[in-house]
């Protein structure tokens, strides 16, 4: 092994490219470390506690959905004029979370950001799980879920087709495409690592299972060549996809004529917000995960700090968007638009608005300080607050705009019911359940990719430094 | 050293690091081998050059898929909303590109992604769950920290000893021969059996559906979620178990008078003035009334009285052929007695019936009854006309001099 | 008949508005197969009965002794909708909200279905078969005693047949006494006319002749028995074309429909009306009154409008005020021009309810027959009528519902619904109206005529009796004509000459002049509820859920406070307060309303029923009462108003089920509202209009795409805000026509009411004398409807005739359309609101549904369709006659019943059609035109006619 492997990371010298992996790591140790998590006979007790909690919350979600479908959307707080409430709020919230994963993988990959290799796997997994939670909402929030399949252009005896002019239909296509592509992207990266697990498998069952999904991967150079090309292409496809998905979600609002929704700034604003919340969620999840499974050397403080920098940047963008909205509302001179925003900030929903402002605009500013940026506890607190703030952003956009639209006679106030709350809690449970299972049975870090950034990965004759 | 049962598959050399295997790859390439491959736990930069591999065709495949997606999506959206299921929506044009961009884009990406994903595996001939190399215990390091180079026996210039020497000269590890394993590559019997079984089971519901579709049934179709198909309102003549007669429609209350349907003119309603029948039709006899009368007559009267009113309608004929004793043959409308009757009496007969003739009052409106009377009068005239009735101009055509 | 009827299957004892609980239509009654439908025709189809077509019958309903003449639509022999009788001189096709809602009672599961006998605390179901022989025997004994101890307690009725039976009763039972009780009687008016003329006279306003109309606490357009005719005449005299448009002055304590329509309104305490009128008379007599600008300018105008003015006084005002008004009208020469007098039935020789109660207590009453009414609930509280009934060995109560009184009597006898009955009654102008049944009694119920007939062994059955009394010696043809018309032509009462007697009016109590009142001497006014009236309609869910025209409150009442009074007492909107009158207390919700006179608190009667039924409350079944029972505070000496009210806030709060959040609680909201209303519900003064007729219209913006050129008919609507008085008749018509469900209090609070047409009500201007704006709102059927483009499954789209169709069966319920509808007229079925009626045992309730309109289930969106079923029916009818439907042939339900003709529907493509001409009118404007969605409904702005001197003073 080369001596450089042992040099400590020096974060304070940006011009000097520090190593991405700390400690004395070589190929075998990386494999051992990552696979060790999966192969160890018993996960830590914390894992059991966590999955018990999240599992029971997931069961509650099931109960809520059954109750909802058997009784009617009325069990939620949705009313007139707020025909949409927590259902769509949570949908947008989870879709937002879902963005970090593919974004970290795809965009950072295209930008040759090698530091992504340690976190992209977990992030992608989160994307999938968040999309599951998000996708559930549009499905169950409709009045007659048993005919929800009419949303898809399936040939039917009624000779009817959906209406492609409707943003909701765009949404259907966008989200389902996003889910599919993310899944492909994630699985493809997973194949070589599954092969690793297969080859290290001690029991026949594991060997068969991992082997089946490894599809007979054996690290052939010819395979690697096509693999890398395909991966690059997928990344290149996924990147605009990520941006498009939240743009389309924002169309649900921007295309309508509800004042407060009908805004051209929405697509970039939503995308920024999505990345913002997504990264926050990655931090929230990865910090405990790396502690729990001893991956500190692979997921280093530098990774976390980089993410925090992204959070700071996107958070400021979101703040800018808020300001712009207000300015345009005033500058546009449309009395309804103007009222909507004054109403947000000072009307009956002011509390929600200011929570949003505090969590999304004020809190991230702490990340200007390196001490906070690199302090595990503080960064988790900030990340969680950001997630709260982003939930409220969606609440403010959707509910406050609907509650007071054009005719004062039909103004109202939205109050959630216990079912709303339990359903949302349930999705959180679902998310963490899936994530915990992932940690337990699949390599949390992309082994093969991490190896490529190890010094051992580079032939010395041809290239000193790549 | 695995016990070689099967034919020789390849010779495998192991290396410790990237440099070693890369160098070896170059040497083997220069030696002119084609069917050889390098195995490593991660993609090695520049190895394809060392091995002399051509660039993959994958990108073109992806491009093709993407374009297909674009075209398909656009066409489909035009065909559904613009052509096959065209509706006025918000007074907008049936097809406008802007509204169709998002879905077109998503679909393009989707198909392209499929191209990249499946294309990669197809080109790599994966999945291939069984490969002779897997027989080699050491080879498992290929996914961990080992580097291997294998020259396959199928290579044109493969010569066991020469090749082995070449490889041995490149690595410090001993070169290993890898043999086709003896046992068949097919799946074990129980696996195949269970798969076949599962397949068969999967077909059952399908078969059931097909069977159901092509069999007639007296039962009403299944209908799980009723929704608005079951309407609790009572449509015309519906049933309502609440009432003893089971009907949802209720009889009129005796003595009540309906709005708008109220007329007093006795001549019009009864055909009588006092006791006597009127001889004048109380409506103005117009061409329309005649036409109406003609059609009503055809509907209600011809079955018995016959088209020309001689009482020789189909019913009468049938009765005659069956020699029905009880059957009272319908009167001929041209019977002098009948012709002598005042219009009012004919009207009365139509409304209330006479002898075995049923009453038609409930089935036709007052106006229609009078229309029939008018038509009957015309009929009677037509069948009992004399030459005098024919205008002079026309008489010539009658043949009579 | 009764042989036709099986025993009623017991309806679910659940309050049938509580729709919670799993309502998935999975595997319902008919299993998991399509249900098979049977067709059951008559063996011999009755003449003129064509299955699937509707027929109409003229009949009438009596309320407080005054008839409403109706035209009832019947489908397959089932009455399904009530409309006004177009031939009737007063109603002219309009019907009040309450008359229309009566159809619901006919099929109400609570509407009494059988006799009940109470015996030693327990109650037993009985049948007429058991009752009749026993009762005949009993009456024989009573008759033997010359009717001693027999008392008949009845509602006032204008029926001749009943009167004839009454005289016969007097002959048979000379010692029997007849008692009349009516909680909202016209005693004051009669007393007033007696004071002024020495005889009972009835005022017949001739509003079409009036230029200056002064209403002193008189709700001519709301609760007045001839409100429909008054409103129509008023609207006609408000048209801007009118050379001399009518100016309406209103002085009242609490906003009424009339007050809402006023040009000049003064909020005075009820008791202050008398001094006001005295001052006015003095001023008119030439005296100088210092009493402010309002009175000054009113007096001047009255003098200027001699013979063309009318001073009307409400039934709550004491006799003196009525008498004064008569005198002033006479002196101004209005009598005979703007108002006529007709004979008022003077219930002479009728025993007072109080006297009866005392007799009962004394045990002097052996047999009490209560014909209708509900004295236990609505009798003056100090009479303790329930307790008094305990001393009556045999008390029979003939009533529609087994209500409070029925439960306190020994016998409850089911009373036939008006649509099941033969009878007669007189409308306000004295026109003799006929009552003919639309359907044989669905359950064995009887009419008062039948019961009374049994008591006095009448020879004739009800129909014959009615004919004999109403049209003696009429030929069959004439009789049929009467039944057809629903009334006797030209039977209106003759106007009588009224000679003014000289009388003096006691000077008002000093406190009446007091500007400030201390808590403890506040004024509490008892007013009949605009929907439930005196409480008889409390079990009618339509009326319970129709928002009150002014307060927009559903499902309950509240004490109405003026803002400053509330502030002074520390009372807030939606809090519970304790009202204290002497020893009696009542805890009620409070609400704050503009236009309420300070110091005066109004409480609506008719709520808080303890035995109304599953809707209105039924304590026995633990179904909570709705609202608060004002009768608990109402005593004989203060039937109209109590003057010693003490208000004590309890600190508890009570959420009121209002469809419009009244006080937009936060300042910015109110500010925005006041800004917008000027745009949305436009009002201008007549003067401005005459100066500058055109209302500024939002010019059509350029469209981003080429709008399709519409060919063929284009259905559209015009609503004249100048005519709308907010009476809710259209709301009820729509509810009945379109099978619109009722959702219940909890759902209304959540804002989930389903009404297809709603009447927006805005207050602007000063708190004391607000300008009230009504705006009926239906689906606007926009040309480029925002709802359509956002529906992912194209469940709502434009029809060829430009209707914005809602395809229920295609709807999956994303609710996006409703979000995108700027008018918020779309309604979503959050639950299956028809669940209870789908349940087993609701077969009778289902008879109510209009078969022409789909019943919407859970999870689909719905909204106004412009009564598409009526459009189609008219088109088919026209097609059968080989022509196109003529203008005015297609009439939507709301338009049909509107007493002021504010709503007009028709084809915009035909420039000669009425609606097209209204669209072209200079007053016309489209709501939110700037959105460029092209609503098909045009509103015509309201023109007010304030007195020039008071205008700017009003601000």
Structural overview:
The complex is a heterotrimer of chains A (466), B (401) and C (955). By secondary structure, chain A is mostly helical. Chain A has a single domain (27-457), classed as Formate dehydrogenase/DMSO reductase fold (Up-down Bundle), CATH 1.20.1630. Chain A has 15 helices and no strands. Chain A has helices at 27-39, 45-71, 86-110, 120-141, 167-200, 204-214, 221-254, 266-292, 301-332, 335-346, 350-362, 370-373, 376-403, 418-441, 447-452. Chain B is an alpha+beta fold and 401 residues long. Chain B has 2 domains: 1-182, no CATH class; 266-383, Cytochrome c-like domain (Cytochrome Bc1 Complex, Chain D, domain 2, Orthogonal Bundle). Helices cover 44% and strands 6% of the residues of chain B. In chain B, the strands form 2 sheets. In chain B, strands 2-3-1-4 form a 4-stranded antiparallel β-sheet, covered by helices on one side. Chain B has a two-stranded antiparallel sheet with strand order 5-6. In chain B, β5 and β6 (276-277) form a beta hairpin. The longest helix of chain B has 27 residues, at 58-84. The relative contact order of chain B is 0.09. The model of chain B has no long low-confidence stretch (mean pLDDT 88). By secondary structure, chain C is of the alpha/beta class. In chain C, a hairpin with a 5-residue loop joins β33 (796-798) and β34. The radius of gyration of chain C is 28 Å and the shape is globular. In chain C, strands 5-4-16-15-14-6-7 form a 7-stranded mixed β-sheet. In chain C, strands 21-23-22-27-19-24 form a 6-stranded mixed β-sheet. A 4-stranded parallel β-sheet of chain C has the order 11-10-9-12. The chains are: A mainly alpha (466), B alpha+beta (401), C alpha/beta (955). At the B-C interface, loops of B face β1, α16, α24 and α27 of C.
């Amino acid at each position: 092994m080369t001596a450089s492997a042992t040099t400590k990371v020096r974060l304070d010298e940006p011009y000097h490219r520090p190593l991405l992996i700390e400690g004395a790591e070589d190929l075998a140790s990386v494999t051992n470390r990552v696979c060790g998590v999966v192969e160890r006979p018993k996960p830590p007790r914390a894992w059991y506690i966590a999955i018990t909690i999240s599992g029971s919350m997931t069961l509650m979600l099931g109960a809520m959905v059954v109750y909802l479908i058997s009784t009617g959307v009325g069990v939620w707080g949705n009313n007139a004029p707020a025909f949409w409430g927590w259902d769509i709020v949570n949908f947008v919230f989870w879709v937002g979370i879902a963005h970090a994963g593919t974004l970290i993988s795809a965009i950072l990959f295209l930008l040759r950001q090698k530091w992504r290799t340690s976190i992209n796997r977990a992030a992608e997994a989160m994307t999938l799980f968040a999309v599951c939670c998000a996708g559930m909402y549009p499905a169950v929030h409709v009045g007659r879920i048993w005919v929800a399949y009419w949303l898809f252009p399936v040939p039917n005896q009624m000779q009817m087709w959906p209406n492609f002019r409707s943003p909701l239909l765009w949404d259907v296509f966008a989200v389902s495409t996003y889910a599919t592509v993310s899944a492909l992207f994630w699985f493809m990266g997973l194949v070589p690592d599954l092969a690793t697990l297969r080859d290290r498998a001690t029991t026949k069952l594991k060997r068969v299972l991992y082997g089946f999904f490894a599809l007979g991967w054996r690290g052939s150079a010819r395979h690697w060549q096509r693999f890398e090309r395909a991966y690059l292409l997928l990344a290149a496809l996924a990147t605009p996809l990520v941006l498009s998905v939240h743009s389309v979600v924002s169309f649900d609002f921007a295309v309508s004529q509800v004042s407060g929704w009908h805004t051209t700034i929405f697509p970039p604003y939503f995308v920024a917000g999505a990345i913002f919340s997504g990264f926050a969620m990655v931090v929230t999840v990865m910090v405990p995960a790396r502690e729990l499974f001893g991956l500190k050397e692979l997921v280093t403080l530098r990774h976390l700090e980089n993410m925090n920098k992204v959070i700071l940047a996107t958070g400021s963008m979101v703040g800018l968007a808020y300001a712009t909205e207000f300015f345009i509302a005033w500058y546009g001179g449309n009395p309804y638009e103007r009222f909507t925003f004054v109403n947000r900030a000072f009307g009956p929903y002011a509390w929600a608005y200011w929570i949003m402002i505090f969590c999304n605009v004020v809190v991230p500013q702490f990340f200007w300080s390196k001490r906070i940026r690199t302090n595990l506890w503080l960064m988790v607190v900030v990340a969680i607050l950001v997630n709260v703030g982003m939930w409220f952003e969606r609440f403010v956009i959707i509910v406050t705009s609907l509650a007071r639209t054009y005719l004062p006679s039909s103004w109202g106030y939205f109050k959630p019911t216990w079912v709303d709350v339990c359903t949302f809690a349930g999705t959180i449970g679902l998310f963490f359940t899936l994530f915990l299972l992932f940690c337990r049975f699949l390599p949390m870090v992309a082994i093969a990719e991490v190896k490529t950034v190890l010094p051992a990965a580079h032939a010395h004759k041809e290239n000193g430094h790549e | 050293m695995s016990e070689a049962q099967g034919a020789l598959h390849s010779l495998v050399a192991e290396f410790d690091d990237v440099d070693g295997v890369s160098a070896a790859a170059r040497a083997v390439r220069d030696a002119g081998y084609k069917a050889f491959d390098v195995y490593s736990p991660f993609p090695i930069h520049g190895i394809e050059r060392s091995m002399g591999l051509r660039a993959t065709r994958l990108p073109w495949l992806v491009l093709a898929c993407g374009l297909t997606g674009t075209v398909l999506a656009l066409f489909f959206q035009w065909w559904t909303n613009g052509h096959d299921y065209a509706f006025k929506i918000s007074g907008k044009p049936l097809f406008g590109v802007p509204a169709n961009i998002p879905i077109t884009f998503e679909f393009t990406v989707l198909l392209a992604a499929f191209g990249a994903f499946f294309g990669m595996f197809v080109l790599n001939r994966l999945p291939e769950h069984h490969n002779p190399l897997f027989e080699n215990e050491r080879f498992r390091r290929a996914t961990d920290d080992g580097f291997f180079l294998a020259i396959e026996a199928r290579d044109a210039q493969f010569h066991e000893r020469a090749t082995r020497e070449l490889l041995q000269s490149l690595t410090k590890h001993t070169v290993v021969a890898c043999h086709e394993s003896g046992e068949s590559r097919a799946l074990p019997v129980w696996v195949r059996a269970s798969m076949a079984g599962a397949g068969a089971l999967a077909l059952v519901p399908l078969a059931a559906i097909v069977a159901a579709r092509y069999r007639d049934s007296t039962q009403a179709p299944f209908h799980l979620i009723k929704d608005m198909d079951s309407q609790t309102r009572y449509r015309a003549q519906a049933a309502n178990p609440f009432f003893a007669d089971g009907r949802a429609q209720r009889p009129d209350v005796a003595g009540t008078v309906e709005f708008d349907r109220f007329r007093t003119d006795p001549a019009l309603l009864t055909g009588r003035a006092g006791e006597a029948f009127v001889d004048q039709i109380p409506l103005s006899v117009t061409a329309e009334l005649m036409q109406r009368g003609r059609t009503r007559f055809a509907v209600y009267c011809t079955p018995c009285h016959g088209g020309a009113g001689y009482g020789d309608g189909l019913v009468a004929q049938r009765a005659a052929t069956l020699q029905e004793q009880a059957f009272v043959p319908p009167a001929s409308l041209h019977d002098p007695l009948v012709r002598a009757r005042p219009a009012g009496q004919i009207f009365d007969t139509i409304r209330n019936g006479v002898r075995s003739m049923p009453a038609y009052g409930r089935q036709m409106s007052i106006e229609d009854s009078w229309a029939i009377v008018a038509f009957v009068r015309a009929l009677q005239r037509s069948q009992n006309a004399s030459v005098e009735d024919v205008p002079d101009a026309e008489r010539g055509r009658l043949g009579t001099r | 008949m009764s042989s036709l009827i099986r025993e009623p299957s017991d309806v679910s004892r659940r309050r049938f508005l509580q729709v919670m609980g799993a309502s998935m239509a999975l595997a319902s009654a008919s299993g998991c197969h399509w249900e098979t439908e049977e067709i059951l025709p008559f063996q011999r189809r009755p003449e003129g009965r064509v299955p699937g077509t509707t027929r109409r019958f003229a009949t009438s309903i009596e309320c407080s002794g005054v008839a409403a003449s109706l035209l009832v639509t019947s489908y397959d022999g089932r009455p399904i909708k009530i409309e006004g009788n177009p031939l009737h001189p007063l109603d002219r096709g309009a019907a009040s909200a309450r008359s229309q809602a009566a159809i619901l009672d006919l099929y109400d599961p609570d509407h009494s279905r059988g006799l009940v006998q109470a015996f030693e605390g327990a109650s037993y179901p009985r049948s007429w078969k058991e009752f009749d022989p026993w009762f005949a025997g009993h009456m024989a004994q009573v008759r033997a005693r010359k009717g001693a101890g027999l008392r008949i307690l009845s509602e006032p009725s204008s029926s001749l047949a009943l009167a004839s039976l009454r005289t016969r009763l007097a002959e048979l039972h000379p010692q029997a006494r007849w008692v009349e009780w009516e909680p909202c009687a016209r005693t004051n008016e009669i007393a007033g006319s007696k004071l002024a003329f020495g005889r009972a006279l009835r005022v017949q306003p001739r509003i079409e002749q009036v230029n200056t109309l002064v209403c002193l606490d008189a709700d001519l357009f709301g609760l007045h028995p001839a409100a429909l005719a008054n409103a129509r005449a008023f609207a006609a005299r408000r048209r801007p074309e009118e050379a001399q448009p009518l100016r309406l002055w209103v002085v009242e304590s609490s906003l009424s429909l009339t007050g809402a329509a006023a040009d000049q309104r003064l909020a005075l305490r009820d008791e202050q009306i008398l001094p006001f009128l005295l001052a006015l008379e003095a001023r008119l007599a030439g005296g100088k009154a210092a009493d402010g600008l309002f009175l000054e300018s009113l007096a001047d105008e009255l003098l200027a409008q001699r013979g063309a003015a009318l001073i009307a006084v409400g039934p709550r005002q004491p006799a003196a005020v009525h008498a004064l008004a008569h005198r002033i009208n006479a002196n101004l020469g209005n009598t005979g021009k703007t108002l006529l007098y007709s004979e008022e039935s003077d219930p002479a020789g009728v025993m007072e309810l109080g006297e009866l109660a005392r007799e009962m207590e004394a045990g002097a009453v052996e047999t009490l027959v209560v014909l209708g009414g509900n004295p236990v609930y609505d009798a003056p509280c100090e009479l303790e009528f329930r307790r008094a009934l305990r001393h009556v060995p045999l008390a029979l109560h003939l009533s529609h519902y087994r209500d409070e009184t029925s439960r306190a009597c020994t016998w409850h006898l089911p009373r036939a619904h008006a649509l099941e009955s033969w009878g007669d009654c007189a409308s306000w102008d004295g026109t003799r109206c006929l009552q003919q049944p639309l359907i044989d009694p669905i359950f064995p119920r009887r009419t008062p005529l039948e019961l009374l007939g049994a008591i006095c062994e009448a020879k004739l059955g009800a129909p014959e009796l009615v004919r004999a009394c109403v049209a003696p010696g009429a030929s069959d043809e004439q009789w049929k004509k009467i039944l057809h018309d629903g009334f006797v032509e030209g039977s209106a009462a003759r106007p009588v000459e009224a000679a003014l007697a000289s009388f003096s009016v006691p000077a008002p109590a000093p406190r009446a002049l007091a500007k400030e009142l201390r808590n403890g001497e506040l004024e509490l006014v008892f007013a009949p509820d605009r929907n439930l009236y005196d409480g008889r309609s409390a079990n009618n869910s339509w009326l319970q859920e129709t928002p009150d025209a002014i307060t927009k409150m559903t499902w309950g009442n509240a004490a109405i406070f003026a803002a400053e009074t509330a502030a002074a007492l520390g009372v807030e909107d939606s809090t519970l307060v304790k009202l204290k009158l002497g020893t009696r207390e009542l805890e009620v919700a409070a609400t704050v309303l503009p236009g309420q006179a300070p110091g005066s608190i109004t409480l609506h009667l008719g709520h808080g029923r303890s035995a109304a039924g599953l809707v209105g409350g039924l304590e026995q079944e633990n179904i909570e009462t709705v609202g608060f029972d004002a009768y608990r505070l109402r005593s004989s000496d203060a039937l109209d108003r109590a003057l010693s009210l003490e208000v004590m806030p309890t600190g508890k709060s009570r959420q009121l089920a209002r469809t419009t959040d009244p006080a937009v609680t936060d300042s910015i909201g109110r500010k925005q509202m006041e800004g917008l209303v000027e745009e949305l519900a436009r009002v201008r003064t007549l003067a401005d209009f005459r100066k500058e007729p055109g209302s500024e219209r939002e010019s059509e913006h350029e469209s981003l795409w080429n709008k399709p050129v519409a060919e063929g008919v284009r259905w559209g609507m015009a609503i004249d805000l100048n005519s709308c008085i907010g009476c809710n008749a259209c709301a009820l018509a729509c509810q009945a026509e379109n099978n619109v469900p009722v959702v219940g209090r909890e759902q209304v609070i959540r804002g989930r009411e389903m009404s297809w047409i709603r009447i927006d009500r805005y207050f602007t201007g000063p708190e004391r004398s607000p300008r009230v704006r009504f705006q009926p709102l239906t689906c606007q059927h926009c040309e480029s409807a925002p709802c359509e483009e956002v529906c992912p499954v194209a469940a709502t789209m434009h029809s060829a005739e430009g209707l914005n169709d809602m395809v229920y069966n295609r709807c999956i319920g994303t609710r996006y359309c409703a979000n995108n509808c700027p008018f918020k007229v779309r309604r979503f079925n959050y639950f299956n609101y028809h669940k209870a009626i789908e349940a087993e045992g609701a077969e009778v309730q289902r008879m109510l549904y209009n078969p022409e309109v789909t019943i919407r289930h859970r999870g689909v969106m719905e909204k106004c369709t412009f009564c598409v079923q009526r459009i189609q029916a008219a088109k088919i009818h026209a097609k059968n006659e080989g022509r196109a439907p003529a203008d005015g042939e297609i009439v939507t339900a709301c338009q049909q019943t509107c007493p002021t003709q504010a709503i007009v529907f028709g084809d915009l493509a035909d420039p000669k059609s009425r609606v097209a001409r209204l669209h072209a009118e200079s007053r016309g404007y489209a709501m939110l035109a700037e959105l460029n969605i092209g609503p098909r409904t045009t509103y015509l702005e309201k023109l007010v006619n304030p007195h020039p001197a008071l205008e700017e003073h009003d601000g």
